[in-house]
Amino acid sequence: MKNRNILRAMLALLVIGLFVGLAACGKKPPQRRGARAGAGGTSDLASAALATYVAPGDLDEYYLFYSGGHSGHIFVAGIPSMRHIATIPVFSPYPGTGYGFDDESKEMLGEFSWGDAHHPGLSETNGEYDGRWLFINDNANGRMARIDLRDFKTKQILKIPNISANHGSSFITPNSEYATMATRMSIPIPEGKYADVTDYATKYKGVVAGIRIDPESGHLSLAWEIVVPPFNYDLGDAGKGPSEGFMFWTCYNSEREFIEGGKLEVTASQKDKDFILMIDYREAEKAIAAGNFSKIGGAQVIDPADAPGIAYFIPLAKSPHGVDVAPSGRWIIGSGKLSPTTTVFDIEKIKTAIAAKDFEETIDGIPVLTYSSVREAEIPVGLGPLHTQFDGKGYAYTSLFIESAVAKWKLPPYDEGADMSQYVVSKIPVAYNIGHLVTAEGDSMSPDGNYLVALNKLSKGRHLSVGPSIPESAQLIDISGDKMKLLYDAFTEPEPHYALIIKADKLDPIEVYKKDDPTWPKHPEAIWSVEEARIERRGKTVEVWMMAVRSFFAPDVIRVNRGDNVIVHLTNIEQTRDELHGFAITSYDINIVVDPGETKTVTFIADKAGVWPFYCTNFCSALHQEMQGYLLVK
Ligand code: RUQ
Ligand code: CUA
After folding, report:
1. What is the mean pLDDT of residues 579-585?
2. Ligand 2 pocket, residue 549 CB under 6 Å
3. Residues 384-424: pLDDT tens digits?
4. Distant-in-sequence, close-in-space partners of 192: CB < 8 Å, separation ≥ 6
5. Residues 6 or more apart from 541 whose CB is under 8 A from it?
């Protein structure tokens, strides 16, 4: 850290020197870096440069995990440098790490070759990120995945029935008991059942689910489902502190209709209010234990009409998007996209209203709490409020899509009868049209409040042009002081939705898979010496135990007959960090990568006769080019 401060001071002198130099030289310089900072442009380039500069060899303070949207991946960057350091493939194959080519990852991907990764969720202990697992939802195919943060690899993809387009996911409860899932686009359930859209109001259903997380292994399994009216369940969050035990989802289209040709954007915005759905998951556990459910599509599904106390609706300004629980757990913040305000609800008032049966109406067995009884305040944050994050110092930050800005505002308490606009303390423009935003450890019970990343939907040319499809933009904003300051523009592949920021020292990833490490399951087909390398034939199956080490494969010739079923177990016996080997067979569409100490299996039919070289794809030594062999198919 001290070295870094010295470096920063030196850099400051350099930057100042550069400006003086430019001013002194009469010739007009080429466009200076930062000259077009524009929206959210910082007035102080030198201090922004210092704040984001991570010297060569120095390390970032935080990890940023951003979802890759329909690329199916998660991107990893460092903060404050915003340098991209890794891509974690989740729902889509990724040749760079051989993901989706070996038997295990292929099986995990199942019938799908892509997914739509939206909301990463970090495992928590007592409401704090514990750095064990990262979860992410697939908005397209009713799935959720778990990534192990010891090796940054996807370990499980769980598909559950009845959830159609899982968007309100994956939000994690304070001790990682559950992750959430929810239907974004209602359908008749189970999937595969037919009903015309003209029967939307009665035959289509939404479903929300609790996904159990095994406390030891992180393994995901379906715990319960609850059938809910055919609204569009959008964003979610898990309660904490006084709201622990509850899950929240916003929903739109409480008009519960899908009119052919009627444009959902119009038909779903008729009513003045939509809702936040609130689920008491301890009641869900009781209903399951009492056998109070029916089996639909293989899942245990609870009907709230038969389980009073399990579900409530909280009215909210129409067409809401984000719902976020403040660090204390007391305040539930919901934003209606079409209202210039964000609404703060009080969990204490919610509990009181439930106890007093203070309901406006009941929808499909779900009581609607009286709005005026549970609302704490409406804050005039600005146009198009979407998502809210927190700094741990009593402030909230709401993204304003239409206004292209972030509003910083104060959480309760508020003075009686006060003009609420005074609590919106500052705003910063962003470039442009912000969707999600994330603060350092912002979903935990003690956010750090140093940095905020604005995940913008449109960047409109704040980078070299790459044609009509331009990168996604993420802006790093300093929120450590009273005024928010723009520090840096970063860009990624399509398409980050939500992101999470965790302190770097909370993660301690492994460097190699140690040969005798008891904490990793031993691969049953691993081999560790040339002597163990072999090929065995059983009928039409040829099984190969192969090892890779700098810079050869053993065996390096595989002889088979056309039509044989070939199984290759490849172990990389290196125990040195970053000594990876690849195994690609030309024209066979096979490309696996093994990390040091890792074993992977690939099974294929040798359906092309001829001579097919295989080679190592990862540059591993000076003689990497020589690391090759032959698949001979007679
Ligand atoms: S969404 S821009 Cu998938 Cu989270 Cu809000
Ligand atoms: Cu092994 Cu290149």
Report:
1. 98
2. no
3. 999 999 999 999 999 999 999 999 999 999 999 999 999 99
4. none
5. 564, 565, 566, 567
Integer CA distances (angstroms), 147 to 115, 131, 549, 582, in order: 15, 11, 27, 22
Least confident interval from 158-172, 184-198, 447-461: 447-461
pLDDT in tens, 464-492: 999 988 889 999 999 999 999 999 999 98
Ligand nearest to the CA of 436: 1
Helix (H), strand (E) at residue 302: strand 299-302
Contact 540, 564 (CB under 8 A): yes
* Closest ligand 2 atom, residue 580 Cα: 1
CA distances from 102 to 79, 95, 97, 99, 608 (A): 33, 11, 11, 7, 19
The Cα–Cα gap between 76 and 582 comes to 22
Pocket test for ligand 1, best of 402, 497, 500 (most atoms within 8 A of CB): 497
pLDDT digits (tens, 9 = 90+) for 291-334: 999 999 999 999 999 999 999 999 999 899 999 999 999 999 99
* Atom in ligand 2 nearest the alpha carbon of residue 581: 1
With CA atoms as reference, report the closest residue to 190 among 207, 176, 215. 207
Q: How far is the CA of 74 from the centre of ligand 1 (A)?
A: 15
CA distance 258 to 550: 61
Which residue, judged by its Cα, is nearest atom 1 of ligand 2? 581
pLDDT in tens, 10-51: 444 444 443 333 333 344 444 445 445 555 555 588 899 999
Whether ligand 2 lies within 6 angstroms of the CB of 623 is answered as: no
CA atoms lying within 13 Å on the CB side of residue 494: 7
- Per-residue model confidence (pLDDT) at position 22: 36
Q: Count other Cβ atoms within 10 Å, centred on residue 432.
A: 20
Q: Tell how far the Cα of 496 is from the centroid of ligand 1, in angstroms.
A: 9
Share the mean pLDDT of the chain.
Answer: 93
Return the structure tokens found at 471.
């990168």
CB 475 within 8 A of CB 454: yes
The CA distance from 169 to 159, in Å, is 13
Query: With contact defined as beta carbons under 8 Å apart, do 183 and 251 qualify?
Result: no
Specify the pLDDT at position 40: 55
